[in-house]
Amino acid sequence: MLNYTLRRLMFAIPTLLVISFIIFALLDLAPNDPTGNLPLTIPPEVREQIRQSLGLGDPFLIRYLKWLHQFFVNEPLNILSQITGADIFESADRLRIRSWATRSPVVDLIVQRMPQTLWVVGMSYVVGILIAIPIGIISAHKQYSIFDQLGTFVSMIGFSVPTFFTGVLLIVIFSVKLHWFPSIYDTNHKVTDWSSLVFQIRQMFLPVMVLALYNTSQISRFVRASMLENLNQDYVRTARAKGVKEKTILLVHVLRNSLIPVVTVIALGVPTVFSGAIITEQIFRVNGLGQLLITSIQGGDIPVVQTLTFIFAVLIVLFNLIADVLYGVLDPRIRYD
Amino acid sequence: MTDASQPDMQLETLPQERSRAMQLWGRFRDHKGGIIGAAVFLIIIIAVTIGPYIHTIDPQFLDIRSKNQGPSMLHPFGTDNLGRDMLAQVLAGGRLSLSVGMVAMALSLFLGTVVGLLSGYIKWLDGPLMRLTDLFLALPLLPLLLVIIMLFRETLRAIFGPETGIFILIVFVIGITSWMHTARIVRGDVLSIKNQEFILAAKSGGTREYNIILRHLLPNVMSSIMVSATLGIATAIITESALSFLGLGFPSDFPTWGRLLYDGANFLQITPSRVLWPGLAISLTVLSVNYMGDAFRDALDPHKVKH
User: Fold this and answer.
1) Which residues, listed in sequence order, are joined to residue B85 by a DSSP beta bridge?
2) CB contact under 8 A, A297 and B146
3) What is its main location (chain B) (predicted)?
4) CB contact under 8 A, B245 and A308
5) Per-residue pLDDT at B4
6) CB distance from A320 to chain B under 8 Å?
7) Residue A305 in domain
8) End-of-domain residue from the set A94, A129, A156
9) Which residue of B41, B134, B139 is the best one to mutate when testing the A interface, meaning the one whose CB has the most A CBs within 10 A?
10) Residue A213 has pLDDT above 60, yes or no
11) Phi and psi at residue B85, to the nearest 5°
C-alpha cells in the first residue's frame, strides 16, 4: 500500500509540472499587456521599463523556471515563516508573487478569501453528504416505492438544473418575494453574539442550499446505486437466512460495503466543489476564491490567475490520489501491488 | 445530429446489427423517463427551429416604449429593458445554445473516439494517450475555460467576426476539454472487443488495420458512444451557459440561454420572468437529455436484460 502511494506521488509530480507548464504557457502566449491599464500619457520607454521591472524581458523558459522556483520554494517558505513568525533564510528579502492589480502578495489575497469559500462551499458539501446518504439508503431499501421515485426524480432535477438557475430562482422566491433571506452575502459580518450568529446562518442559507442541492443529488444517486448493487450480493441472502434483522443488514453490512465507492466519489468531488463555487459565489456576491478568480481574469491580473488555477490543479491531483489510496485502504479486496 | 445519424447508417448495412439496434430501441422504449425525455427534447428542437417562423418578431428589434412588460398577447414572455420581445429572444437563444451543445458534443465525441480507439487498439500508443487523458482530467476546467476565453476572445472576434468568432472559440474549448470520459469508455470497450474471434478472423483474412478499426471495432463501440453523446450535449449546454452566465460567453447581441439569464438577473425585481424562461429552457433541455442518457445506459446495460 505504501509502495503504491509512493508510486502515485511520484507520478503526481510530473503531472503537476506539465499542468503548470500548460497554465504558464497559455497565459504567456495570450495577447495581453499588464501595462494596458496604465494611463496613456506614460511614454513608451517608461512603459517598457515597467514591463522589464515586472520581469517580462526574460526568455520564456527562464520565466517559467523562475515562476516554478517562486511557487514551489519561495512561497511555501514565506507561508511557513508567516505561520511560525520565525525568520527562515532572510524571509524579509525573499520575492513574493504579487498581484498586478493590488500590488499585494497573491498568497495574502488567497488567505483573505479562503475562509468565505471554505465556509459556504465546504458547508454545502457537508450538508449535501449528510442529506444524500440517508436518502440513498432509503431509496435503495424501498426500491420503486413512492419515496424512491420521488427521490430519483428530485435528484435528477438537482443534477440537471444548473446552479446559476437554482440560485437566481431561490433569490427570486426567498429574497425578493418573501424577504426571508438576504440575497447578498455580507463578508464583513462578524459573529459576536446570538443575533449576529442568526444573521450569519441566514445569509449562508441560500448559497449553501443551492450548492447542497446539486451535491446531494449527485451523491444520493451514487449511494442508491451502490446500495442496490450490494443488496443483491450473496452475503445479504446469507445474513437474511441466518435471521439477522433487516435493519442490521441494511445499516451495518450493506451500508459499510456500499460506502466504499461513495467515499472515493466524495473525495473526488472536493476539488469540483471549489470550481463549482465560482458560479455560486458570483450569484450571491460572496467574495471568496471563485470571485477573486473572476475579477482577476477580467482585470488581466495574470499572477493571481496563474496561482489560483494552479492551486485548483493541485487540489484535483491531490484528491484523485487520496481517493485512490482511500479505496485501497477501505477495501481490503483491492490490491495494487 | 450528424453523429447520431451516422451510426444508424452503418448499422443498417449489417443485418444482424440492425436487429441489435431494434433490440436496443425496444429496451429504450421500456424506460418511461427516456421516452418522455426524448419527446421533450424533440419538442424543444422543433420549437426552436420552427418557432421564429411563427412568432415573427425580430429578437433584436428595440421597442423602447414597451419596455419591461409582463406577458401579453403580442409578447407572450414579456419584454426586456430595451423592449425586445423575450419569446423571440429565447427562441433565437435556443438555436444558438443547442447548436453550441451539439457541435461541441460532436467535436468531443470525435476526439474521444479517436483517442479511445487508438489507445485501445494500438498497444504502444496506449500508455502515452492514457497519460494524456489523465492529464486532461486533472486540469481545472472551468478556470481554464474562463482564462482561454478571456485571453483569446478579442483575437478570434477580429478574425471571424463577433458571432462566429465566439462560436468557434466556445465550441472548440468545450470540445477539447470534455473528450476524456468518452475516450476512457471507448478504450475499455475496444480492449474487451479486440481479443474476440471476429477480429482475429478479420485479421487472418488480411483486412487492413484501419479497416478493422473502422468496420469492425467502431460499430461495436457505437452504442457506448451514443450514451456519451447524449450526456455530452447536456454538459456542453451547461458549460456554455455557465460561461455566458459569468459574462465570458456570447455577447448580448447574440444571446444564448445562459446570456439571457445573466442579463435578466440584473432585472430580477422588475421582471423575474426574464430569468425564468431561459432558465427553464436550459433546465428542461438538460433534464430531458439526461433522462435520455439514462435510458440509453439502461438499454445497453447487459445486467438489465429482461428476465
Assistant:
1) B79
2) yes
3) membrane
4) no
5) 45
6) yes
7) yes
8) A94
9) B139
10) yes
11) -75, 125
Residue of chain A whose alpha carbon sits nearest to that of B140: A313
Q: How far is CA A98 from CA A16, A54, A107, in A?
A: 22, 10, 8
**Which residue on chain A is closest to B141 by alpha carbon?**
A275
- Is pLDDT at A25 greater than 60 in this prediction? yes
CATH number at residue B213: 1.10.3720.10
Name the residue in chain B with its Cα closest to that of A156.
B287
Same domain (yes/no): A271, A127? yes
The helix/strand/coil state of A98 is: strand
Alpha-carbon distance values, A269 to A36, A64, A165, A265, A274 (Å): 38, 30, 21, 6, 9
Residues A51 and A149 in one domain: no
Per-residue model confidence (pLDDT) at position B106? 92
Answer yes or no: is B77 within a domain.
Answer: no
CATH code for position A168: 1.10.3720.10
Selected residue of B245, B273, B290 to mutate for chain A interface (largest A Cβ count, 10 A): B245
A64 part of contact set with chain B, CB < 8 Å: no
Does the interface ipTM go beyond 0.85? Answer: no
More confident residue, B149 or A36: B149
**Scanning the structure block, which residue is given the C-alpha cell 426524448?**
B38
Determine the pLDDT at residue B20: 67
| pLDDT for res A335 | 66
Q: Which of A160, A298, A305 sits opposite B287 (nearest CB)?
A: A160
Last residue of a domain, one of A68, A94, A120: A94
Q: Residue A322 belongs to what domain range?
A: 110-330
The count of structural domains within chain B is 1
Helix ranges restricted to H, B122-269? 123-137, 141-160, 162-176, 180-193, 197-204, 209-211, 218-245, 257-265
Which parts of chain B register pLDDT below 50?
1-13, 305-307
